[in-house]
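Notebook, bench 3.
Goal today: get a predicted structure for LacI family transcriptional regulator from Pararhizobium antarcticum so we can plan the truncation constructs. The sequence was checked against the plasmid map this morning, with no discrepancies at the termini. Length recorded as 338 residues. Pasting the sequence as submitted so the record is complete.
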Amino acid sequence: MAQGKIYVSALEVAERAGVSRSAVSRTFTPGASVAPETRRKVVEAAEALGYHVNQLARGLMRNESGIVCLIVSDMATPYRSSLIKALTQQLQNTGKIAMLVNTDRSDGSVDLALRQAIRYRADASIILSGLPDKSIADLCLKSGQRLVLINRNDDQEGTLKINLDDREAAGRVLTAFVRAGCERLAFANSDARTPSLMAREDGFVDAARAHGLDVIVERFGGTTYESGKILAQKLLTRSLRPDAVFCATDLLACGLLDAARHQFSLSVPEDLCVAGFDDIQQASWSSYDLTTFSQPVEAIALEAVSWLADEMDPAVRQSHSSRRLHAELVWRGSIRGG
């Protein structure tokens, strides 16, 4: 009959090595002082017995679990998966363990995820989706958690908020369209209405108005390829068809581009100029060749994890911090003159 898994204890290692239990502990504690011969005996005994340090138990003794929850929706989308990859790598580099919690965009779903994080004694949560109610955020903070909000506009105390210069990026797209001779402008967005998506929409509309131009705004569904195709149908069946479309994300732009070419027989960029946002891998494919903005996922992950790892003063920790990062414009062939 199969036996249950039995973990080797530090006491067993100490007995085999002929040293004290505290000597084993010091051997596997970074920076602790251990005589070279003692270290050799302990390491050899640990390898022979298959011993591994119980980091969870060690952390809980310090009132730390080492767990950081990533609360995510739409994790299969290219941008979100690349951000998850960068965050988990940065967390692993600092000795943290990532717990991935899949949610939808509703406040209730995010709140439930945060309560799960509290029950697992997570040290922190990084929220990539939804916006937690202030009461549940307060509960997390009171439980000792630290919170990172990515692409959100909440100013909750005790959190780090990381955003991009979305409005400024939208202004650069407007300038590119104007230089390409475009006059009938449109913005294609989803119905998600997240702060980052709306900042791109509002920034583009305001920049156009400053140039004396109007913008047709269409919103539909989620930030998906399929929504992009439907948005193309809404925009390109108008009697006065737009000659330039800024899409809130690259996935929307890919769907719109395919519909424009294959359903409406339009040439890009001769008949229609298109820009996106995120610089997903597909944007560089020759079939799309999409001008877009690159999400600085490595910088976002570094900012988030560095803030979580910083042993700051408790009074400073309770204050609100924010970071605004730059989205680099990546020129390709979907805008004339790009």
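Residues 58-62, 312-316 have pLDDT under 50 and may be disordered. The first helix runs from residue 10 to 17.
Flagging this for group meeting.
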